Amino acid sequence: MARHGGGRVWYGKVIGAALGVMMLATGASVWTAQAGDADDSPPEATAPAKPGNNGKRVSTTIAHASDKGKRGVNITIDDGPDPKWTPQMLDLLRQYEVKATFCMVGTQAQAHPDIVKKVVAEGHRLCDHSVSHNTAMDKDTQAYQSQQILDAERMITKASGGVRPMYYRAPGGAFTPYSRDLAASRGMRPLGWNVDTKDFELPGTAAIVATVERELPNGPTLLFHDAGGDRTQTVEALRTILPRLKQQGYSFGFPVR
What pTM does this model have? Predict the structure, then answer.
């Protein structure tokens, strides 16, 4: 999985807030790291949207498959919520009757609880994307990884009004066997992607659409962003992609759990 180094620059301004959270974190418990293959479990048949995970252990393998099967597509949106861009994307998703998975940064969720609640109210799923979006967190200690995952889980759950994230996506794909096992022990399936649209690089709307069309045969999970910069191109790309994929016979679902 590609590492989004650019994300660290934007998130530098939230590190101070994240450090404050770290000081409040209690000593990390010790979980046994279980190394699993980054394979998909078989797609679940018509798994319905759920209000949140039940805290029961899930698979440690990194999910890519869709619960809609071979013609399923998973829209995943990272780094928010953002008061400007997330509502625009929610409007598009509602217009085309598409549900998505929002991978939220803890400090962003804490700052915009009204948007988190709106995401949940409209039937989308939540994903833990760490406290501070450190794309090198796999190089840090287990205690640091625990703080990033567990504090973000608490922040997102509080902001949502009690709905827990169902997935954990490591920033830039910086998973470790330990972080995957920790997330899975909390009921959050590690979540990967198949198509990196590179929208954070602002390649142009046409380029984002072309990337999706070219790489969708690689797998169903598409990666977009709703924060970290100007997301006009992402909004316009989704305006094209959502109806086009429907016309091509794809169904929109959620990553397998």
Answer: 0.83
